[in-house]
Amino acid sequence: MEKKIQDGKEGHRKRLQERYLTKGYKSLADYEIVEFLLFLLIPRKDTKSIAKELIGKFNSLKGIFEANTKELKSIKGLGEVSITYLKFLGDMYRYYYEENILKERENNPISIKTKNQLINYLRIDIGISKIEEFKVLFLNSNNEVLGIETLFQGTIDKSAVYPRKILERVLYYNARSIVFSHNHPSGNTTPSSKDIEITKMMKDFFKMVDVSILDHIIISKDSYFSFLEEGYI
């Protein structure tokens, strides 16, 4: 009986694999994609029920990749290796977007005018973070990205964000303009009075050293607020 069950699992996995190889990932339901990932890691267990529970709890692949370790541990059947693998895949997703923004700057420069690409990158990089992070993009005179750094973490207010620290990195990259971004873990991207105060302070400071602030973007996993689009810059 046990052999028949195991043979059934192997047959199901083989059919899933063949469908993927012949028709691609779009031929698979979300839970089947998760199942496919898991049966590469858990060879002797039925991963369909685990995959369905993951999709049921986190709603999508994106939700699974954004889940923290504690949340993933609540799923029965997921061990340390599987959790580490899922977290790694989520990080690779972020890495992919960062590579696309920074890749081959010399031969194929990426312009900050690709706003959707920038928003997508920020969303998966800091938009899902549970703590506030203040990120700066450094650009040359053609608005090509020279570098991206997270400079401050924790509660973002005037006392925590140091213009001189940012200026040091501006000089390092020889940047002519910058874009600020920070996340709101609450999901509400409406700027606070402190956000507005920081933006004004930074604008005044960098104007004195002939560096332009192109935008300040508040990001969450579902939305964003652009100080430029809303007329604050």
Structural account:
It contains 9 helices and 5 strands. With 233 residues, it is of the alpha+beta class. It folds into 2 domains: 2-96; 110-226, Cytidine Deaminase, domain 2 (3-Layer(aba) Sandwich). Helix 2 (30-39) crosses helix 3 (48-58) and helix 6 (80-102) packs antiparallel against helix 7. Residues 1-8 have low confidence and may be disordered.
List the helices and strands and how they pair.
Blueprint: H1 2-23, H2 30-39, H3 48-58, H4 61-66, H5 69-73, H6 80-102, H7 115-127, E1 133-139, E2 145-153, H8 163-173, E3 177-183, H9 193-208, E4 212-219, E5 224-226
Parallel strand pairs: 3-4
Antiparallel strand pairs: 1-2, 1-3, 4-5
Helix pairs in contact: 2-3, 6-7
> CATH H-level name of the largest domain... which superfamily?
Cytidine Deaminase, domain 2
Range of strand content:
5-15%
Ranges where pLDDT stays below 50 over 5 or more residues in a row are 1-8
Largest sheet: 5 strands, mixed
| Gyration radius over CA | 22 Å
What structural class do helix, strand and pairing data support?
Answer: alpha+beta
How helix-rich are the residues, as a percent range?
A: 40-55%
Write down the secondary-structure element order.
Answer: HHHHHHHEEHEHEE
Domain tally: 2
